[in-house]
Amino acid sequence: xxxxxxxxxxxxxxxxxxxxxxxxxxxxxxxxxxxxxxxxxxxxxxxxxxxxxxxxxxxxxxxxxxxxxxxxxxxxxxxxxxxxxxxxxxxxxxxxxxxxxxxxxxxxxxxxxxxxxxxxxxxxxxxxxxxxxxxxxxxxxxxxxxxxxxxxxxxxxxxxxxxxxxxxxxxxxxxxxxxxxxxxxxxxxxxxxxxxxxxxxxxxxxxxxxxxxxxxxxxxxxxxxxxxxxxxxxxxxxxxxxxxxxxxxxxxxxxxxxxxxxxxxxxxxxxxxxxxxxxxxxxxxxxxxxxxxxxxxxxxxxxxxxxxxxxxxxxxxxxxxxxxxxxxxxxxxxxxxxxxxxxxxxxxxxxxxxxxxxxxxxxxxxxxxxxxxxxxxxxxxxxxxxxxxxxxxxxxxxxxxxxxxx
Length: 406
Ligand code: HSE
Hints:
- The protein has helices at 11-22, 24-31, 59-63, 80-90, 100-116, 134-140, 155-166, 172-181, 190-193, 196-210, 229-238, 299-315, 352-359, 386-396, and strands spanning 2-7, 35-41, 55-56, 68-73, 94-97, 121-122, 146-152, 220-221, 240-251, 254-265, 277-284, 288-295, 340-341, 343-348, 376-380, 384-385, 401-405.
- 36% of the residues lie in helices and 24% in strands.
- It is an alpha/beta fold and 406 residues long.
- Helix 2 packs parallel to helix 12 (299-315), helix 4 packs parallel to helix 5 and helix 13 packs antiparallel against helix 14.
């Protein structure tokens, strides 16, 4: 038997408790021994809930109990969660977490502490919720050099963009409100809509595939706050979907990592990924292409990934599991300036002559095809670097919006 403690009985913590109760037999069989939750840490009381009998409000009970070998940190945030994770690892306990903020902010240090204490720090649920992507990289795609990961790593923004596409004309703010009412969007929705959340997730995945630590603060991050119903209508008319993509790619100029909304063509494997679903495209030098799709958030999908980590921790009790994120140094990212793309630019009809001077597009898109947008036109630029485009966009100075083609 191996004993575990769960820090936090919130959405994910209660999911973890329920998954372990519900699937007890198969989990124990797969872990090779019985997993018992000895403590659940929470300051709140849960009268009538079966968790009551293992509830504690003292972390010291857990950290000082030599029987506890696995600590599940599902509190979130980087305050107490950081301190408790550190103290658990230092006390020789394995830690499993869904806490993407903590892994992105302190993962390097926490993994180094885990190494020194010969225990494991597992964080499968921090990226893509229930999708097994970290274990797939660490344990399955081990014959490959992975040179690219492109993901839809945020369910809230994918839900918003999907709704805006499927309900033509609905505004960003209206769908955001609906997402908040449905409980998808987090307390502070800016982590989702300004894309800090997928930036953290792609930083974690990049650190694993490239070996050294990618600082999420170095990742170029553009969210979906400015995407309008009209942008979406142009995209649909052209046969594209607007998707918030998080990408890490090894190129001749170095490793690039960025998050931004893109116009994605119908034949791309991430095009049909809709609603709160997440998906990760991986390219390996031997494998070629692989796509992992699934539930990227929610109590049970996230708990499913956390409990899979608990099983792995039980299987690896007393020994270290392999993790690709192994070097202590920080990875210097290459600039995005020289990436070549095409761009869709919307302008007011009266500015066509000036747009011709600056961008010299092949032509303007017929406004009739996008409905009532009578006072505007749009054009697609030729391929140019991000730097060239930014200079021209600034020189023109009066565009309504612009979107990158993937
Ligand atoms: N807010 C996140 C999302 C939750 O929408 O994807 C899962 O990390």
